Structure formats: C-alpha cells, structure tokens
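note to self — DONT lose this again. spent like an hour looking for the file last time. sequence + predicted structure for the chain T wanted, 566 res
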Amino acid sequence: MWDCQSKYVSIFLLLALSGLFFLFRNINILEWKLNSTLDLSSIHAEGPPSLDRKRSFCSHLGQKPSPEEALEERSLLESIAGPEPPPRSMPTPLDQTSDPAHSLFSILPAGGGRERHVGDQLEALVLMSDFQGRPKSHGGDFLLARLHSPELGAGVAGQVLDHWNGTYSAIFPLLWEGSVWVEVTLVHPSEAVSLLRRLQEERLNWVPSKSLFRSGSLSETTRCNLCLPANQQPLCNYTDPHTGEPWFCYKPKQLACDTRINHFTTGSQTYLQHLTNKDALLFQSGININGRIHAMGSDSVTVLPKEKDKPEEESSSIAAAPIRTPPSGYYFQGSWRALGGVVIRQFNDPTTIIQCLKGKQVYMYGDSNVRQYYDFLTSFVPELKKFNLRSHVRAGPFMAVNIPHNILLKYRCHGPPIFWPPLSVSQLHYVANELDGLAGGSDTVVVIGVSAHFSFFPLQAYIRRLRQIRRAVVRLLERAPGTIVVVRSANLDQKKANFINSDWILTQMDRVLKAMFRGVDVLLLDAWEMTLAHNLPHDLHPPPPIIKNMINIILSGVCPLPSSRT
C-alpha cells in the first residue's frame, strides 16, 4: 500500500515541477515583454559596439587603399560586426553556452487580439538558454528563421533581431493564405561566433595553393597565396597591373618568376585544427550547430485573406521595429515571386528560353555557382550547342552557341584565389578585366557570382575584390547603358559543420555584397534568401529546383513583361 502511495506522490511531484518550469518560462516571457521598452531603448540608443580594425588585411603587400577605400572598408566591417558577448578571462564552460534543445520560441499574439491576414506581420520571440536550462543574459547567437507552408510549396526568409540580452525577435511578412509554420535554427552559439570571428582574421593560408615552375627539364613547386610571409624566402609578385589584385608565390630556388606555368590547390584545413579541445566542443553537429529551436505552444498560425481598405499591420512587439529590410521575394507553389523589380516569368520550355536569348551574348563570370547556370541552360536547351574547347572540366572556359538565333553563351571562372585542380596560368582571368573588355549594349547579358572561394580569407580580401568588380560594372554601364548585369549573392550551405563555407561567414559575405552594390543599376539575384526560404537542405551548390528559379530571375531581367519595364 505504501509503495503504491509513494509511486503516486512521485508522479504528482514530477507533474508539479514540470508545471512550475513551464510557468517560470512563461513568466520570463511576459516580464521581458513588459520591461522591454525600457531595456531595449537604452540598448538601441547605444548602438552596436565599435569594431577596432587598426590594420588592413595584408597591408604590407599590394597597393595601399585610398582614404575613401579605407573608410568604406571600415564602415562595411563595422556594419556587420554585430554585438559580441562580454569578454571573459577564461573560456565559457560548455554547459553555460547556448543550447538549442533548452531554448524556446513563442509566436506573439497579433495586435489587439485580431486575426492574422495577408499583409500583416508575424513575430516570434526567441529565448535562448544554456545546457542547464538557464536563460542567457547576452546576445550574439547566430540564428536563422523561416516561415513556410509545405503543402503550398511556400516559404519566406525571416528577419532576426538581436536584443542583446539573450532574447531575439524573428519577424516575418505574411504573404499567402493558409496555415504557416515558424522554423528557427541556432546555427552557432554566441561563444562559437566569437571564436569564428577571431579565426576569420587569422585565415591566411588555410588552403594551400601552389604553382609549378618549369624551364626545360627543370621544374619546382612553391606555395602561393594572397598573402605570404615575406621574411621566409623571396617572393614572386603576380599582382594584377590593372586591378591591383595581389597574388604571390615563393620564388623557386633555381628558376625565375616568369617560368610559372600553372596554379593548383593541395588540400584544405578546417577550423577544428586551430581550436583547443574545449573550444572544439562548441562545434558539434546536431548538438550546438544547426540545432532546431522548438516552440512553446503552437509553431503555426492561420493566415486569412487580405482585409480590404485596412492598413497593413506593423510588428506586434512592444520593442521590436517592423521589418527593417523587406525580403526580396518568397516561394509559392515552388516558384520564386519577387517583391520588387521585374515580375518573375516562368521559362518552362527550351523554346521560350531560345526566344528570350535570341540575338544575345551571355557572359558568365565567377565560381562553380555561376557555372551551374551554364550547365543548366546547356542541358535544358538542346539547341545550345557546346563547343569542345578542351577546357578544364570545372574552371572552363566554356562556350555554347545557337547559330540560327544568333545566341552566344560563355562561362569563365574568376581569378585567384580559386581552389581547383591544376589550371594554366593563362586561364587565370580577373572578372573586372573581363568586364573592361566587353563592348556591352542591349544585346549583352553579364552574370557575376564571386563568393565561395573567398570564405577562406578575411573579409577585407572579399571587399577589395568586389570593389574592383563594382568599378568595372559601373564603367561598363556608363559606356553601354543597355547592358543587363546580374550579380549573384552568396548562398547558405548548412550541410557543412566546418568554418570553411559556414553559414556565418557566407551571411557576412552576403551582407557585404548587397551593401557594395546598393545603388548600382544591376539585377541582384538574392541566393541567400532563395536558399533559406526553400524547403530543400542548404547546399553550397543549390539543387536543380532552386537553380531553375534563379534562371527564371535572370531571364525575366533579360526579357521582362511589358508591364514590368522601367
């Protein structure tokens, strides 16, 4: 009898403790919402901490940046620096770091308790906790958020606002009717972001590049990179004379610098090779990398049709502002719909694509992400006949034509750094130089995408490369205003749990690119949002459904509907 009573007492105590736990979490949310106006107003007034960058990347090599360039670089780096957790004399123990399993989000009620309609905004409050279930007191976690309806093939990227006190707002526009689900992911805890930020500054020779030098029967191989220590041995300087883009190799012992014949990569390292065993615990796949944060209560709401003659609702949060940067578009029934610019058309058959490209010269420059467009078009459209140029299977250059309709399609990889098997030095062309060699005009389409290979370097190197490309784009548009230029941003790659091509660095690169091309007359292809909003797993090389939607964007810019012409 006593054993039975003891059993029921234990069950009752367990239920009571569980109830108190969830009550405590709800009280925390309510208290934060009630006090957030005072707390956040002071934080917002201070702004993010200033970023101290006293030296330029490889400042001892290459051309010295002008005062305007230095100011732009600093402004860009400070704009994406974001808040960091307070400095600690000792590394944070793992059990005090952000844990997605103990963290929660809650969808906040609509203003005035009203129903939700298309055109409103939805906000979810995210409360981060550590592995012991204790609320975090500072921000800096790297979160991604998505709103989606799987049965409708619909999805849109959310905007995550860091309140710097362990809480975040994920804000979404409501763009379609029906049931929508909120998805919040912790990509990296703040403690890992701090380490990644340090490692980002140290990445100089993580991917060993080399070149072969040959003269007659004599050959040597030496290391090459954007930045090499000059005190180890003499350097060969291969800085491009037109763009000023630096590239160096150690001078062979017996051969001259002008005997260099190729460029290749010998492997790569991950950030784990640069971390202590304790720090490496912050990068455990499935534990604190790309961990799903669960909802407290429902993770979905029902969206009703747009109300007539009523203004759109702004954010329902007391403290958070409305969406600062509206999304560039969203998926519906598997197709990308832009929220500005040209209307996206569907090019679902080869004939439509041929008619759109009739009389056009299409030049594609960049990495393998841009090569995906060339591969898609030449595979989907049999009328585009590929020429065998005996090119490198990954780097090109490639060319396809359709003579009856006067179509030319070309792809060329960007110049170093590029990490592929051996390439002839003669094939190392910088995008800016290629653009300067184009006549341009209404029959010319240019597609540019440079990102993944720069994730191995500090952001200063990426800023410098984009600056040269931007200047060449501006020159091209000035001499040939009818030229169509498409610039592709970096996309997410959540599959990988290492520093190289991590979503954290790719997101930084996405922000830098968008800031640098703001105000330039180009069509921005927002690969970051298009990969985040889609239901397919993130991949460095997006799968065919996403590539097809990207092709639709490019061709819609080339052949816009009459109503969307500016």
